[in-house]
Structure formats: C-alpha cells, structure tokens
Amino acid sequence: MLRDLWTRLSPAVRRALTFWRRSIQARVVASTVVLSALVVSAVGWILLQQVRQGLLEHRVDVVLGEVDAEMGDARDRLEAASGREVNVGRQQRDLVDPIIDRGASRGYSVVLAGPEGEDIPLREGGGEYTSGLDLVSVPEDMEAHFDGVGRATAWTYTEIVREESGESSSVPGIIVGSQVQLPSDGKTYTLYYLFPLSEEQETLGLVTRALLTAAGLLLALVAGLTWLVTRQVVTPIRLARQIAERLAAGRLQERLQVTGEDDIARLAYSFNQMATSLQRQIRQLEELSWVQRRFVSDVSHELRTPLTTVRMASDLLHDARAGFDPASARAAELLQAELDRFENLLVDLLEISRFDAGAAVLAPEDVNLDDIVNRVVTAAQPLADQRHVRVMVEHPDDPVRAEVDSRRVERILRNLVTNAIDHALADDPTEAVVVRLASDEEAAAITVRDHGVGLAPGEAAMVFNRFWRSDPARARTSGGTGLGLAIAQEDAHLHGGWLQAWGRSGQGAQFRLTLPRRAGATLRHSPLPLIPEDAVSSDAAVVAGPDAVVPVQEVDR
C-alpha cells in the first residue's frame, strides 16, 4: 500500500520527501522554525490581548468621563429652564441638540428613548434623535436595563450600525446609557451615547501588522541563523559521508581534510586513522585472497591431469574387482568412491575460482520454477528414502515463473534439499522436509524447511562460509565437499537475489532463496517469510528470555 501511494505521488513531491528524509539540516531548520513560530505566536497573542485590553480600558474611562460631563451639563440646562413654560418637544430638542452637535464634532452619536414606562421599544421604531443610526445598535439587554425609573448609568460593548446610501456599515463601539427627567412633563427619559472604536481598531490593526512583520523577520532570521549553525556541523559530516562512499568504492587513498583542533577536526583525524588502518588491512587481505585464489585455481587445474590418470587406473581396478580377493575388491570400491568425492571437490573448487575471478556468466531464460523443484526433489528421493525422511512440496495455484539460469538455480536447490535431508530427523513421520514456492509481481521465493538439529545462535551467519560445518564430527551422508552453500550463495548473488538462513537449536532450520522475476531487476522484498510460521511463537519466547538473540541472516538486503 505504501509503495502504491509512493508511486502515485508526483516527481516533485517524491523529490521533496526524499530531500526531507535525507537532510538533517533541513529537518533541524524546519523544526526550529516551527517551534519558534509557536513561541512567537503565543507571545504575540499575549501582547495583542494586553494592548487590546489597555486600549479598551482607556477608552471606557474617557467615555464614562465624557458622558458624566454631558449629563451634568444637560441637567444644569434643564434646571435653568424649569421656570419657563416650554412644551415637551421643545425641551427634548433643547436637551439633545447640543449633545448631538458636540457628538458630531467628537465622533459619537446619541439616541433618546422614553418616557420610561410608556415608551415603544427601539427595535419597533421608538427613539428619537438617532443621528443616522440604525436602532439595532442599542443592545436589547441595555434597553431592558433602563426599562424603569432611577436606573444608574451603565455601559457595554456594541456594534454601531449605520445606513448610508442604501448600504449598511458597522464598527465596534461602546454604548453608555443614563437617565434624565424633563421638568416640562416630569417624565424620565434615557439617553444612549454611542462611541465608535474606530481609532482603537486602527491602532490595534497597526500593532498587529507590526507584530506580524516583526515575527516574519524574526523567523527568517532564526531560519538563517539555524541554517548557518547547522551547516558548520553538517558540512563535515557530508564530506565524511562522501569520503566513506569513495572508500567503499575502492578509492582507499581518500582522506578528510583536518582543519583546527575542535571536535569535528578530531573526528576527521580519527576517521583518517581508521581509513589508513582499513586500507592497510584490506590490501593485506587482497594480497592474501589473490594468493589463495591463484593457489586454488592453479592447484585445481594442475590436478586435472594426474586425476585423469588415476581415474583411468581406478576404473580398470574397479571393473576387475570380481577377480580380486575380498580385501582387494573392497579397496578398489573405496578407491572409486573417494575418487568420485575428490572429483566433486575439484569441480567445486574450479567453480569457486571462477566466481573469485569474476568469470562466472549468467544465462537467464524464462522458466517454471515448479519444474526445477520437482526435478530436484525427484533426484533427491533415493537419499530421502535411505534416510527415511519425507520430502513435501507445496506448490501455489499459479505457476512460479522467472528469468533465471536454470542450471544454477537447480544447483542451489539441490544443495538446500540435500542438506535438509542430511540434517532432518530420521524415522519421524510427523516431521518432513517442506519445500514451498511463492511469487508476486516483482520476486519469486523458495523456502526449504527441515525440523532437524537446527542451528545454534550465531551459526546462521556462518553456514555460507567455505568448508564450514555445524558438526565437524557428523558424517556426510550425501558426500558433500563443504563448498555447496558457498557456491549456492554466489549463484544467488549472480542472479541479483538473496540466499538467507534461519535456525534454532532443536527446532530445525529454514533456507530462503529469493530471485527477481525479471533479470537485472532489484529486489526489495520476498514473497515468503524467512522465519517459519511454526517457529514465530517459539522465537518470541526466546527473545523475551535472557539470551535475546535471533540468529537470522539477511544477506545483501
């Protein structure tokens, strides 16, 4: 599923994800910027709340002081006019008009409502001297607060709505209500003062823009500084990686440049010392390996001629053994058997020398792996009957086809099946050597499972060594040379495949051969598990115990 999702991504996204996965510098810079952004956002939000609260508190104090002054002036003017005969409408206008004039110059509006007890709700058309306001600007809870006589001055926040040129506009504001009694009719009216917060809103917007600009510049500065700081550490690491890749490619003379005396310089110095030591040891091993390969190749070729002569003499003796005495006839048979064994060893040595010299050539063809497995199992059946071991093959429903060299794959499977029969539990009808096949779109896999003595911890990494045997005292029923698994592994590598081993003492072993279905393709997974299903629960118990060691060899993953 993940592979399908990865293939559906665009190339640009895949390149970006690859860069993110491989670049420590990018991840450090990104994480630093994200954390800094969170901190800056939190600090900026706190500062904005404090600025907003301060602006509003200051504006409320100013508004309340101005309303107290207006109401005091209004009451003085009403007391001065109480002795004259003035109608109610005239007195209302004398009360409100000066306030409206001052409000127009100072930026606030006035709404007169009343008389209390018999007034019409503002939202139903009540109220006078609205100064172009929509009466929805007066909150209902504020109007309900002054629904009566003798109410104290109150204020709250509101949204001031105006109708201009058929279009409605609104700004946040503060509304302050206070009651006054007209001498002309003795009734109480309520004056609502509406002060817009436009200036405070502009100030808060200016502060917000300034904080955003400062935050952006700060984050850019943090990103730049983090990039420069991490670059000082990452650049030497990248150079060390490049030198390590060149060393792995065989350019053993490459070294890091040592500058200064800090930790990075000491690391470079230690790296160069390690590279020098490795170069010296690798050259010694190469010389020893070259001598060994040359010795094996020369000895193998030189032994061909005398072996042919000895073989001819042995054949004559073996054919004439009927006329010998029993001891001489037995000696002739032993000589023939050991010559067969010696020829097999010589053939394996020549094959190994071809692999060492890089002369092994692959001849792939599209074949059915089921047929190869059947041939190998049929050829091994006499040995299985001799050892009283059952050999079972589990074929999938569909044929398992792949582009492989059938001769080499057959040699690999012959070694695996023969070894499994050699190490299986004889005379046990409940246990058998099981050969399984499976395939998918990219790979084909074959596992050979036995329930014999198994492998001790650490031996799974050694089974492919040349001439290695798990039990040197154990007789070779099949007459092996000790090079079979080493050659099998080389054959698997020649296909670009894997040959892997799993084993547990007393639980048997399993070998898995994984091959690409197309010649030259790269393997990324195997259709069959390396650890058999009947051993998973047992492995969990072992891992949970004191010696948590799972001897699984993953070759060239």
Automatic annotation (TrEMBL):
<dbReference type="Pfam" id="PF00512">
    <property type="entry name" value="HisKA"/>
</dbReference>
<keyword id="KW-1003">Cell membrane</keyword>
<keyword id="KW-0472">Membrane</keyword>
<dbReference type="InterPro" id="IPR003661">
    <property type="entry name" value="HisK_dim/P_dom"/>
</dbReference>
<feature type="transmembrane region" description="Helical">
    <location>
        <begin position="28"/>
        <end position="48"/>
    </location>
</feature>
<dbReference type="GO" id="GO:0005886">
    <property type="term" value="C:plasma membrane"/>
</dbReference>
<dbReference type="GO" id="GO:0000155">
    <property type="term" value="F:phosphorelay sensor kinase activity"/>
</dbReference>
<feature type="domain" description="HAMP">
    <location>
        <begin position="231"/>
        <end position="283"/>
    </location>
</feature>
<dbReference type="InterPro" id="IPR004358">
    <property type="entry name" value="Sig_transdc_His_kin-like_C"/>
</dbReference>
<dbReference type="InterPro" id="IPR047669">
    <property type="entry name" value="MtrAB_MtrB"/>
</dbReference>
<keyword id="KW-1133">Transmembrane helix</keyword>
<dbReference type="InterPro" id="IPR050428">
    <property type="entry name" value="TCS_sensor_his_kinase"/>
</dbReference>
<dbReference type="Pfam" id="PF02518">
    <property type="entry name" value="HATPase_c"/>
</dbReference>
<keyword id="KW-0067">ATP-binding</keyword>
<keyword id="KW-0808">Transferase</keyword>
<dbReference type="InterPro" id="IPR003660">
    <property type="entry name" value="HAMP_dom"/>
</dbReference>
<dbReference type="InterPro" id="IPR005467">
    <property type="entry name" value="His_kinase_dom"/>
</dbReference>
<dbReference type="GO" id="GO:0005524">
    <property type="term" value="F:ATP binding"/>
</dbReference>
<keyword id="KW-0418">Kinase</keyword>
<protein>
    <recommendedName>
        <fullName>Sensor histidine kinase MtrB</fullName>
        <ecNumber>2.7.13.3</ecNumber>
    </recommendedName>
</protein>
<keyword id="KW-0902">Two-component regulatory system</keyword>
<feature type="domain" description="Histidine kinase">
    <location>
        <begin position="298"/>
        <end position="519"/>
    </location>
</feature>
<dbReference type="InterPro" id="IPR036097">
    <property type="entry name" value="HisK_dim/P_sf"/>
</dbReference>
<keyword id="KW-0597">Phosphoprotein</keyword>
<keyword id="KW-0812">Transmembrane</keyword>
<keyword id="KW-0547">Nucleotide-binding</keyword>
<dbReference type="InterPro" id="IPR003594">
    <property type="entry name" value="HATPase_dom"/>
</dbReference>
<dbReference type="Pfam" id="PF00672">
    <property type="entry name" value="HAMP"/>
</dbReference>
<dbReference type="InterPro" id="IPR036890">
    <property type="entry name" value="HATPase_C_sf"/>
</dbReference>
